[in-house]
Amino acid sequence: WLPELAHVNSADLISGDIAPLERRGYPETIENHKQQQARFKALYASIKG
């Protein structure tokens, strides 16, 4: 539970598409999940063969 994000729609939280005004008071993300997921899948595919 994060009080800073209590007003944000659950679907937006899950997708990561949170508008800048809704993120006020909350720190910026450290990693972009979509980019890191794509990077992991490519790495895994290259190892798996």
Structural overview:
With 49 residues, the protein is an all-alpha fold. It has one domain (3-48). 45% of the residues lie in helices and 0% in strands. The chain is elongated and about 45 Å long. The termini are far apart.
Outline of the structure:
This protein has 49 residues and is an all-alpha fold. The protein has helices at residues 10-15, 33-48.
Task: Give the arrangement of secondary structure elements.
Blueprint: H1 10-15, H2 33-48
> Could you tell me the strand content as a percent range?
under 5%
The oligomeric state is single chain
Taken from the alpha-carbon principal axes, the silhouette is: elongated
Question: Tally of extended strands?
Answer: 0
Helical element count?
A: 2
Class by SSE composition: mainly alpha
Elements, N to C (H/E): HH
- Parts with pLDDT < 50 across at least 5 consecutive residues: none
| Number of separate structural domains | 1
Overall mean confidence score, pLDDT: 87
Radius of gyration: 15 Å
Largest sheet: none
| Straight-line N-to-C gap | 40 Å
* Helix share bin: 40-55%
Structural features:
single chain, 49 residues, mainly alpha, 0% strand
